[in-house]
Amino acid sequence: xxxxxxxxxxxxxxxxxxxxxxYKPIFGSSNLKFEIADFSIEGNKKLGNQIYSRLRxxxxxxxxxxxxxxxxxxxxxSKEKNVTSKNSAGKILEYRVNLNVKVKINxxxxxxxxxxxxxxxxxxxxVQDQYSETIKLENKILENLINQVSQELLINLSENIxx
Length: 163
Known about the structure:
The chain is of the alpha+beta class. The protein has a single domain (30-161), classed as Lipoprotein like domain (Double Stranded RNA Binding Domain, 2-Layer Sandwich). The chain has 3 helices and 4 strands. It has helices at residues 2-19, 45-60, 131-161, and strands at 34-43, 69-86, 92-107, 113-126. Helix 2 packs across helix 3 (131-161). The radius of gyration is 23 Å and the shape is flat. The chain starts with a helix and ends with a helix. 13% of the residues are buried. The mean pLDDT is 84.
């Protein structure tokens, strides 16, 4: 009786595993086929290059496929760092970093606009005891904000290219 129960459980597990083998994400990389033919970066060049390199790496994965859309890309990035709290002696306790990214994407061949959107992200962080630790924390916050903007940009790009 135990052997039959084990066989039934094993059989049902195998059926469930086999049923999940055809999983495909909605915004998968195979659906989004583009190559960056031309680009320009305005504002903060360092942050703009980080966003561009993420898009370029994504577009290189689709390079040898058919039906690729050539795009022209303009990225304008601005970063603002504001003090959000101070103690009674005037010492800064917390900062807020605002990242504003304006992206304009056109079809390179037809010059039709594919995407024109602003992405705003912000995050706060506390001042650390060591200045170098505060700088590391700020850089980590900026990296997280850039990743967030890049993911939102890819989602918006996939929605507009697939239309």
